[in-house]
Each structure stands twice: as C-alpha cells, then as structure tokens.
Design a protein that fits this description.
Order of helices and strands: EHEHEEHEEHEEHEEEHEEHEHHEHH
CATH topology of one domain: Rossmann fold
Number of helices: 11
Helix content: 25-40%
Structural class: alpha/beta
Strand order of the largest sheet: 3-2-1-4-5-7-12
CATH superfamily of one domain: NAD(P)-binding Rossmann-like Domain
Number of strands: 15
Strand content: 15-25%
Shape: globular
CATH class of one domain: Alpha Beta
Largest sheet: 7 strands, parallel
CATH architecture of one domain: 3-Layer(aba) Sandwich
C-alpha cells in the first residue's frame, strides 16, 4: 500500500483521514507523545519530530510516496523555514515522494479591489502572513521541479465549520465596515477543503495551483449580518475604516484591507471537485444546530 505523510495534522487533515486511510498507509508528524497517542487511536502511525528542529526530521527521508503539507509557517519572519527544513529532509531519501499537496491561502493575491480572481492573477502579498505563504509556495515549486515530484497548491480563503464560526466577535460587538467601504470575503467549509486535498493527491497536472472556495461572493459586513441573524445575536455595528482602525487589532484590520472575489472554476473542471457546502449562508442553520 502506498504511504502518505501528513505534515500538520490539524482540523482539515483530520477531516480527510477516513478517505485517506482507505487508500494509503498514513503517517503523520507529531511533536509530542500525547499527540502520538491521539493519532494511533485514529489508525495513524505517528512520527515524532518538530519542523523547528531539523535533526528530529531524519525519519521522514524516503518514508512516503505522497505528502500532504498543511503546517503553518512560523510567525517571526516573512520566510517559511519550516517548509525549507522539511524539503531538505525529504530530498535526502533514496526514494522521493511522487506527489505533494500544500494548503496555502488566497491572501497571496493581496488586495484586488473586489475583482474576480483566478489562479493566473499575479501574487501581491501585502501582509507578512501572506508573504510567508508565497515563500513556501516558491520553495515547493523549486523542489518539485528539481526532483520531478508532482505538486498541487490549494489556495484557501476563510475556513469555516460548526466550531469555527466567529461568534465571539459578534458577542463582543466588534464593528464591521460600513457598506460604502466594505470588502468582499470568501469562504470554504473545512470538509470541502479536506476533500479537495484528497483529490489533489491523485488528480491534476504535475504542477498546478487551485483556488478552493465555495460559490458565494459576500461582502464581509453581509456575512456577519447573516451569521448574527442565524445565531439570534445582534448584528455588528457598522463603522468607517478610520473608526475600525481605532478599535480593532492590526490582524483583524488586515483582513478588512483586502477585497477579492475568488473564482473556483479550475478546481471544479480539473479535479472534478464540487463543494458539499456551496453557499455559506445556506449552511448556517445546520452548522449552528450542530
């Protein structure tokens, strides 16, 4: 049976496990014994190691035929040293991975002023968070080209699920932008992203990028209004950019400073992916019930 290595076995990768276990012998990098025991309980073989400690990664060399990489970069630079260390280790193996899937972010496009964005859009990351993802993508591309490994990059927007809704922000009555200054926001359910990652392991051209998002194009304020209505909470106050800047954190403001409508045509056509949750607003009643 082909071996699959998961780097970053968090929520999204965990949702993919039932599909993956039927097709692969699954390994996952984990930092501690508590995490290892949790993985064993799910039928996964844990590999103790830490992307911040290169010597701990030696067992990964030559281990897997396929790699699913969703570990986030460290937050201290605009580079992704974790991905560089991972790839340096994988390159030492006598057998190399046939295919890799990397979960990136649509933040790499930067502010597109509300334009429709497909995968041909030039990358203009405006935040350090997005710059780290661009660095990771470039590093992975070089590795794949050099080693002859297939690489599919999945660029995801805001990931949501029943336990990943921003209800706390609504309860805090944090403001959102007024209609005249509001920005478009994009979404994908965690289950749909997990399914896309599974398909990308086995389908698609050798080097390819895919936007992974649902079919809705919502302004951010409208999204929070819809969530508030579905949850029975007060709608958030509307404010100008200057008023929001005076009360919100820089991290929150960074999401309010970029507007784009992400296009998902390519992934539907090439990977035959269809979102189980095509409309984030329509999904809210069931998510809140769950």
């Amino acid at each position: 049976m082909n071996r699959l290595l998961i780097i970053g076995c968090g929520d999204v990768a965990s949702r993919a496990l039932p599909w993956l276990r039927r097709r692969f012998r699954v390994y996952a990098l984990v930092r501690n014994m508590a995490g290892a025991q949790a993985l064993r309980a799910q039928g996964i073989t844990p590999i103790l190691g830490d992307l911040d400690q290169p010597r701990s990664l030696k067992r990964l060399a030559g281990l897997a035929h396929y790699v699913l990489h969703s570990a986030p970069p460290a937050e201290t630079t605009t580079d992704d040293a974790r991905t560089r260390r991972l790839l340096a280790t994988l390159a030492q193996g006598q057998s190399l991975a046939r295919a890799m899937v990397y979960i990136s972010t649509t933040g790499v496009y930067g502010d597109c002023q509300g334009a429709c964005v497909d995968e041909s859009r030039p990358l203009r990351p405006a935040t350090a968070r997005a710059q780290r993802r661009v660095a990771a993508e470039q590093c992975l591309r070089r590795f794949a080209s050099r080693q002859g490994c297939a690489l599919r990059i999945l660029r995801a927007p805001g990931i949501y699920a029943a336990q990943r809704l921003p209800l706390a922000r609504l309860r805090q009555a944090s403001p959102v932008l007024c209609a005249q200054e509001d920005v478009y926001t994009n979404h994908v359910h965690a289950d749909d992203l997990a399914h896309a990652a599974c398909l990308a392991l086995l389908r698609g051209p050798r080097l390819r990028v895919y936007n992974v998002c649902d079919d809705t194009h919502l302004k951010m304020g409208d999204w929070y209004d819809a969530l508030a209505d579905a949850a029975g909470l007060p709608r958030p106050p509307r404010a100008t950019w200057a008023e929001c800047a005076a009360s919100l954190s820089p991290a929150t403001l960074s999401f309010m400073g970029e507007s784009r409508r992400i296009c998902n045509t390519r992934i539907k056509r090439e990977l035959r992916w269809q979102p189980a949750y095509p409309d984030v607003v329509a999904a809210l009643p069931q998510l809140l019930k769950d």
